[in-house]
């Protein structure tokens, strides 16, 4: 059993090295790694692929660096303009996106589901990652729906919901 597990671990390390060398093989490598990781888990070996979980408000609040990086003025439209449209209109705003290292953290309200929810987003020119899904308190959710209706989309966080988030994160 130990020999078999060691073989899989060595094989998995070789696949990881190959993934770093050949970016085009990433989907195939991911599937191979997932398959081998599943086999390792079956053999009671320590899992080698880390499972990512979403954050919550408490996690965000406890990370002062992250709280300081939140862009409270960022909107979904501005994020698309800055990170996805070439040229990003540098003359009209405060931001100039030069590389994938330029990152924004911001909140949005997503109303595509039956109930609106808040997402905490990390965006660069390569991707947008939903770091946290946050339920809106019932009273705020009801007022939001009264004011904005049931239009489907992704909207900027403002008004009472923005103030609530800032209070929860101890931001003045």
Describe the structure.
The protein is of the alpha+beta class. It folds into 2 domains: 2-42; 57-168, no CATH class. It is 45% helix and 15% strand. It has a 4-stranded antiparallel sheet. A hairpin with a 4-residue loop joins strand 2 and strand 3 (128-135). Residues 23-52 have low confidence and may be disordered.
Rounded to the nearest angstrom, the distance between the terminal CA atoms is: 58 Å
Query: How many H/I helical runs?
Result: 7
The gyration radius over C-alpha positions equals 21 Å
Spatial arrangement of strands, main beta sheet? 3-2-1-4
Which key terms come to mind for this protein?
single chain, 172 residues, alpha+beta, 4-stranded antiparallel sheet, 45% helix, 15% strand
What topology emerges from the helices and strands here?
Blueprint: H1 2-21, H2 26-42, H3 57-61, H4 64-69, H5 76-83, E1 104-110, E2 117-123, E3 128-135, H6 138-148, E4 154-156, H7 159-168
Antiparallel strand pairs: 1-2, 1-4, 2-3
């Amino acid at each position: 059993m130990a020999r078999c597990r060691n073989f899989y671990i060595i094989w998995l390390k070789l696949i990881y090295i190959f993934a770093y060398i050949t970016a085009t093989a990433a989907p195939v490598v991911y599937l191979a790694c997932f398959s081998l990781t599943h086999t390792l888990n079956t053999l009671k070996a320590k899992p080698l692929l880390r499972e990512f979980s979403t954050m919550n408000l408490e996690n965000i609040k406890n990370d002062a660096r992250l709280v300081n990086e939140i862009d409270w003025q960022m909107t979904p439209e501005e994020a698309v303009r800055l990170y996805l449209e070439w040229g990003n209109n540098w003359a009209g705003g405060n931001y100039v996106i030069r590389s994938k290292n330029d990152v924004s953290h911001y909140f949005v309200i997503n109303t595509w589901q039956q109930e609106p929810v808040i997402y905490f987003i990390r965006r660069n020119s390569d991707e947008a990652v939903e770091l946290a899904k946050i339920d809106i308190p019932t009273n705020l959710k009801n007022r939001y729906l009264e004011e904005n209706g049931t239009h489907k989309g992704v909207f900027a966080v403002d008004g009472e919901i923005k103030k609530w988030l800032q209070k929860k994160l101890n931001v003045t």
